[in-house]
Model the fold of this input.
Amino acid sequence: MYWALCLFEKRFFQNDISNYRNEEIKHGMNNAEAVKFLAESQSAFLQAVDGMDQATSQMQPAPGEWSVGEVIHHHILIERTIRLLVRGMRWHLLGEKANTGNHKPAALEKVSQRVGRVRTMRRFIPAPGQSLSQLLQRLEDERRKTLRLARRVNLIKLRQRAYRHYILGYMNGQEWLLFIGHHQERHRRQVEEVLQKLRMNVNVSEQTETRKQLPQRMN
Done:
């Protein structure tokens, strides 16, 4: 079964090469650009958590709000699920035939800009208290698999399939692939928000402690 799938993939990649190039120009997106976008979103996210220690990664800025570690775990769950979805769309196992209304670049931009807050689905709720080093390794592993898919998949055929997002509505396969990068950028911004709140909490705590140490005024 595995070797049959490999042979099918080889034939799939070799079909319609000239048409593929023309479609790349028409839609303004090719595999190299998709890989670049996903690699850059990963790099920016890793920079945001660079030098962080385990204790900081587990600190919640407020009760009920995610720590940095939980943000990372959430994205890992999302990326793995979407990659499997895109693979299913690639082989026409998931989704349906796309139409022009499935193209939603503006909606994807809003995702990365953290426009509006959403309640995540239960299966994507992260687990607290995980090892930061292990989370970062898993993040690297997931992105390596995603980049491999982005290099090999026929984006023309992927754009011909669509699958419904529970908030954004139907998106074509290419947009689902790029959604991974937009989602990661959204949570990179969340990481920065978390760290800013943690710094503010420290400052407030220090000010409170200073006040306690000051001599009391006499009436």
User: Anything to note?
Assistant: Residues 28-195 form a domain with the Four Helix Bundle (Hemerythrin (Met), subunit A) fold (CATH 1.20.120.450). DSSP finds nine helices and three strands in the chain. Confidence is low (pLDDT under 50) at residues 1-26.
